[in-house]
Amino acid sequence: MTWAFQKHCQVSASRPGYPDEILEILTAEIGFDRTKIVADIGSGTGLLSKLFLQNGNIVFGVESNDEMRFFAEKSLAKFPKFASVNATAEHTTLGDATIDLVTVGQALHWFDPETASREFSRILKTNGHLCVVYNDRDKNDAFMKDYDHVIRKRAKDRANVPEVNDHYLSRFFRDAKYSRFQLSSKQLLDFEGLLGRMMSASYMPSPTDEARFSALKQDAGSLFKSYEKMGKVRLVYDTLIFLGRIQK
Question: In the CATH hierarchy, which fold is given to the domain comprising 3-138+160-186+238-244?
Fold first, then answer.
């Protein structure tokens, strides 16, 4: 395991998690319960999978990145209903019409929309649903505005990441109707946690890029100093949930 990924795994715990209210929304909207089978596509280190495993669901974590998948297998080993799958969103290897709910958390922009959508449609049961979950920074919060300024200033190739908007989502739902929900959440981080959170994005510099990383660390230090209270800063996020059926 590379140092960079070890660091990524260490700071992944400081990423905003997925609130339990997601389950409440799914229950109210589509009658979701612990008998439903979930395919978490692009499951990464297992943050979203864990939410459903704690609820008692069978979860297939589909992840093509070996290091992330191995980390999820280790961290979720205590859940007997977790099945780790070495596959992609475009070819999950799961059976036809075997899944009640396909979930995607913070990974949709890595997928080919048309191919992945066809694959989701194939593995979903007739009454199955797609649920896309994203944690988005609160753009009205003063600290988060300055945080975003640092990210934009120090990011590399961030423009290659598409915005997850209605136009982009329609390519996955195939123009079918879907519902949008929004939840608010907060995190308190010390300086190490703040820097780790910034580093966890693929487009941010790592310590191996000494000059860019040094500049990022300096900016993060100034940001932290301006806003910290009792050694912590507060990050404010909106959890955005997009739920619907895929047009056959």
Answer: Rossmann fold (3.40.50)
